[in-house]
Each structure stands twice: as structure tokens, then as C-alpha cells.
Amino acid sequence: MPKPKKRGSNHQRGAGGQPRNVQPFSDEDASIETMSHCSGFSDPASFTEDGPEVDEEATQEDLEYKLKGFIDLTLDKSAKTRQAALESLKSAFSSKILYEFIMERRMTLTDSIERCIKKGKSDEQCAAAGLACLLCVQMGSGIESEEIFKTLGPVLKKIVCDGTASIQARQACATCLGICCFIVTDDITELYSTMECLENIFTKAYQRDRDTNGVSSTHNTVLHVSALLAWTLLLTICPMNEVKKKIEMHLHKLPSLLSCDDLNMRIAAGETLALLFELARETDADFFYEDMDLLTEKLRALATDGNKHRAKVDKRKQRSVFRDVLRAVEERDFPTEMVKFGPERMYIDCWVKKQTYETFKEILGSGMQYHLQSNDFLRNVFELGPPVMLDAATLKTMKISRFERHLYNSAAFKARTKARSKCRDKRADVGEFF
Hints:
66% of the residues lie in helices and 2% in strands. The chain has helices spanning 28-41, 56-73, 79-95, 99-119, 122-139, 143-161, 167-184, 188-202, 204-211, 221-235, 240-250, 263-283, 292-303, 312-331, 351-364, 368-374, 376-381, 392-398, 402-427; strands at 337-341, 344-348. A hairpin with a 2-residue loop joins strand 1 (337-341) and strand 2 (344-348). The longest helix is centred in the C-terminal third of the chain and has 26 residues, at 402-427. The protein is globular and about 65 Å long.
């Protein structure tokens, strides 16, 4: 077997460890080598790692150089290389605001995403759909994002409705379709069309319920959950007359999904019910639901579920969620949550806001706090006003060094250990035996 050629010589590489020529590689060795660069870049912590002060302009140039390489690698012949490049771009887009860089390359990125969704396999399609979400989050609601959605929307709908495509790809495309439509659509016709597409997916769970005594968990359940959550997100931006129609259509059918074997489906159905009741009472203060007693009985059973055949973690999560759902349906109450990001605070005080926050947190991951501070679109969605501008000196005083964090964590650990030891001493039998 011939030895692979060495590729570590300096004359073959530019700054950042990337090949000087960023054309797609054709041999397997180059693809494997490229993946190592992609995986090294894909860790979000690499953007925020503590260290000595560096030239921000040089760092930005190095970042953009790497990103250009990854964009080119989305055209590579190797599926693994394309997927690794997509994941690296996702990591960058979720961790930084790159509006100007993306603006210059939005059509190239859109074409790459479209090609990966159309031609790629399941994992590549999922990565491309995730990148499409982040692309729209970066661009915000504007003409450019509308152009992106006009290109990708039909492709996403085709995959969602394609029964031969993998469930994971259809699930990712359903989520992407809902988020992108939420961000960019001013056209009410497109909004209704997208919601109808998602309805055609999750309402199949209703049909299955009519054929059996309960909703059984199948491999399609994850797709139904994603379609339901994406549809619920779009419902929050619908006109009130359309909201009334959707409530009349789905409110008496959704409780059947509470009997599903799948925990995520039960939770999605419960949270959607809470949101529908919240919207219904906003449109009509005297809103009355005929089967309220039966519904509250179901919700109470889920909030106090003690079935031994369920995992303890699942039971705790279910009880926590359905206690809140029951309070929302029965008492019109919502437990307010506080989200901290930098020097700011945001209060989540309704189900609509909770649904929106959870959706964007799912796609942004650890970058959610950064985007809440800096992303104009997200700040507008949550009514946070313009970004708070802090000078470098203020930011430096607010930042805690790694050594200080270590000391704080050590002290907190010792305090917890002492407190737990005291509790154990009180429970322990201290008598002597002879």
C-alpha cells in the first residue's frame, strides 16, 4: 500500500493552517486532512476562550479567512468534508455576529445550502438545514432574508413532505421551515401556506389516534413533534382571526396526543395546549372550553404521574412541565422566568414568549446569550431595545478571569460539601454498638 503524501510543509499552507488554494479537494487524503481543521474550529468555546489580549482586527481577518475556506469546502466531493464544513459554519454563526461577512456571500451560502439539502444524505441535510436557520437569524427580517427563503422554502417543503427522505432530515427541515418563515415572512399567504404544510404532517398523529385506542410511538413521532412545535411558533405571529380558526380546528384534537407513548410528544402537546388557551383568552376574555373537566383530569394525571415503567428522569421532567400547563389551563397562571445575559435581564412571563425563546435557544445553543446581547433581530423579537453599548474598560471590569472563576467554584464546592455533610450527620445513626 503506497504511503500517503506529506502535506505539512510550509510552502503549501497559508495563515490559519488552511490550504492556500481553497478549491475543492479531490483525493481522500486531502478530505481527511480538511476534516481535522473543521473539527478544530467547530468548538464554540474557541471563540470565547480566555487568554492574553490580541489584535482584534487580525483575529477577525483570520476568522474570515477560515470561514471562506469552509464555504468553499461545502462544494467538496467528500460528504464528510462537506458536513464538517457545514458544522464549522454553524458554530461560527451561532457564536459571532457576522452580518457584513455574510451579506457579501449570502447567495453563495444559499446555493451551497440548497445543494447540500437536495443532494446530500441525512446528516448533511440536517447540518445544511441548521445552517439555513442560523443564516436567517444573522440576516434578520429584511429583503435579503426574503430572497434566501424564496430559494430555500420550496426545497425545505419538498423534503418535509417526501415520505422517502430520512426522518431526521424531514425533522430538521420542518424546524428550519418554521424558523425561517417566522423570521422573514411578511407575506401572509406564504405564512398560511407554510402552516398548512406543517399541519399536514402533525395531524397524522390525530388520524392514528382514531385507528387505535391510544397514540402509539412510531419512528414518525419525532417528525410530528418538530412539525407541531414549528407550527405553534408560526401561530404566535398570525392575525387574531386566523388564531381563532386554528383554535377551533385543533383545540379539541390536541388532548388525544397527551396519551402518546413518547415523552416529547406529550410535552409538545401540553405546551401547545397551554399556548392555545393563552391566545384564546386574549381574543375572548370569556372563552369557554366544553371538555375542561376531562382535560384538567388528564393534565393532573400527567402532573402527578408515578408509573414505574417510566424512567425517573422522564417522570420528573413530565411532572414539572405539566404542573405549569395545568396552572395555565386551570388558573390562567404562568411561572415567570428570568434570563440573564451580560448586564441585562429578560423576563419570560407568558407561553408565547417561552415558546419563542425555547425555539431560538435550541438552534443557537450556547450562543443564545451572545445573540440576545448583540443581535438586532432577536432583541426586536423580545422587545429589548437597541443593544447596550459598553466600552472596553467596562467590559474588562465585568469579565472574571479564569483563576478567579476557579477560586469561586472551589469555595462554592467546599460550602456545598460542608452543608451536605451536616445533613448526613443529622440523618446518621450516631449510637455506639458493643
